[in-house]
Amino acid sequence: MILNKKVFILICIILFFIFFALGIGSKFLLKPAWAKKYEIEFTDEIGTLYTDLSYGEKEANKFDMYLPKDNTRDTYGLIVYLHAGGFTAGDKAEDKRMLSWLCSKGYVAVGINYTLFSEENPKANVYVQSMEIKEAISKVIEEAKNYGYSINEMGIAGGSAGHTLAMIYAYRDAGISPVPVKLLFGAVGPSSYYTEDWGIYGFDKNTDESRKGAASLFGVMGGVELTSEMIKDGTYIEKLKPISAVMWIDENTVPSVVAYGKHDKVQPYKASQRLLKAYKEHNVDYQYFECSYSGHGLQNDNTVYKEYMETVEKYLNKYMTIK
After folding, report:
1. BD-FAE-like domain: which residues (predicted)?
2. Residue 122 backbone dihedrals phi, psi, to 5 degrees
3. Domains of the chain (ranges plus CATH)?
4. Residue 210 and which of 41, 60, 106, 246 are 20 to 30 A apart at CA?
5. 58-86 b/e with 16+ CB inside 10 Å = b?
């Protein structure tokens, strides 16, 4: 009976990640005319693409690097864009058009894969993935230099799970980054794990069942052992700090452009409001876009999403000006 319960919990956790992975998909199935500006085909006129470069020993430890055609500058800005997929799926190649656009603007653009959570890889949690990204950055910068592109600053971004990992690096690891982090942008990534915000999964209820559910899911995501007692007394929060981007925000936090759906049934909307509050309290230069009619895919607010992308471009031009 105990074994069956453990199997059931594992299945529930895997299903959560699957739904998370599928939730972002609808946005990318819809391509309004204005989106073509930000998603372009990569050609020799844009630059050179190197795929599946290694940054570690694990099978998934690969990155794709897009080098701009102009190789005459003394220094270059790096933009890392991390793929969506609910921490269980996705690939850097899926962001090729976005990375091509970033490269066309003169940045060294990089997509990074990370080990995905699965039944076969249950230890590939959000914390492990964040540490892989942390390890990858120095390798990316080193590889760019080998090709003659000296990196002096960077921005990091992503969608959904990729947005979460990007925020963790920008807020938790910026202080030890090999080059200054100048900008964060992304959409619909979870930034915190306060049970009162996760009502869409029933974790806000004052019941042992609710607390056990939160302990199971958050424990898997953080790679830590949590109990219902920890959920009840609040001690779980500090254990999840390594994957809780909002807990690392302070007066030195980098400028940030983010977008969230008000009707998100995957990433809780209340958690994004906690992120917004942290930006305000610490005087971060931020732009927060609320998609009032959308869920996780942001599919029903094209006008707002267009404004979000235009703001991303403005912030890129402001904080990572190409000289």
Report:
1. 64-172
2. -70, -15
3. 2-192+244-319 (3.40.50.1820)
4. 246
5. bebbbbbbbbbeeeeeeebbbbbbbbbbb
Nearest partner of 312 among 180, 168, 185, judged by Cα: 185
Q: Provide the token pair at 239.
A: 């254990």
* Burial of residue 270, with CB atoms counted within 10 A of its CB: 0-12 exposed, 13-18 middle, 19 or more buried: middle
Contact 322, 105 (CB under 8 A): yes
pLDDT digit string (tens) for the chain, length 323 residues: 343 444 445 545 554 555 555 545 444 444 688 888 998 999 999 999 999 999 999 999 999 999 999 999 999 999 999 999 999 999 999 999 999 999 999 999 999 999 999 888 888 999 999 999 999 999 999 999 999 999 999 999 999 999 999 999 999 999 999 999 999 999 999 999 999 999 999 999 999 999 999 999 999 999 999 999 999 999 999 999 999 999 999 999 999 999 999 999 999 999 999 999 999 999 999 999 999 999 999 989 999 999 999 999 999 999 998 76
CA distance 323 to 315: 15
- Which token pair is 90? 């996705």
Whole-angstrom Cα distance, residue 255 to residue 293? 26
